């Protein structure tokens, strides 16, 4: 009986070592792209982005001082929540169904599991954002008297690239919280709290006078603020880029620690 019980264990052990990272990426891509929640999230992201861009373009049509690229980028303050929620439910959905145990049995290297999920959701969100931006640019162009100046990267491609990066970071932030909290409601609440609630709370301290200015200054280091600054044409890049990337790395690192230290 001992030999019979040990045989499947050894077989699973050898199968795990034969599972390459490319195979793991393929597996995660299948899981993510076959979820209805993924397509609902991506569809809502695209619809919000394009719809709000059209409204902004119509309102700003006769305003000469408005940068045309902002029409495409300003809806990010709404779509960032959907991106973060998508990252959270990709993980918490596996915990709620118990599929995470099958994933970790097939690939015991938990860091590889986290990395593969991060790569897949990043590529999915990046591709969706690029397509959405392209659609928004085409649809809003007839409404604007002055279009995007593509000859100046600082006024066109650079803010748009940072917009794509911002959406990826928001998704990874939710993914990290998903691994840490494991419960859908909790991970979504944490994600919405960081992306939406904290900026509002910090802004309230503007009424506190000089004694609370330090709290207002901390607001510049929130992910939404860093993303907003990065996507503003001609804005400072260095500190904002570091801040944004740190908000992606921090939750993922915490998620990796939680994944390694707790049973599935």
From TrEMBL:
The keyword Membrane applies. GO terms for cellular component: plasma membrane. Coiled coil: none annotated. Keywords: Membrane, Transmembrane, Transmembrane helix. The chain crosses the membrane at residues 39-61, 67-91, 112-140, 160-181, 188-208, 237-259. One of its GO terms (molecular function) is ABC-type transporter activity. The keyword Transferase does not apply. This is ABC-2 type transport system permease protein. The lineage of its organism: Bacteria, Bacillati, Actinomycetota, Actinomycetes, Micrococcales.
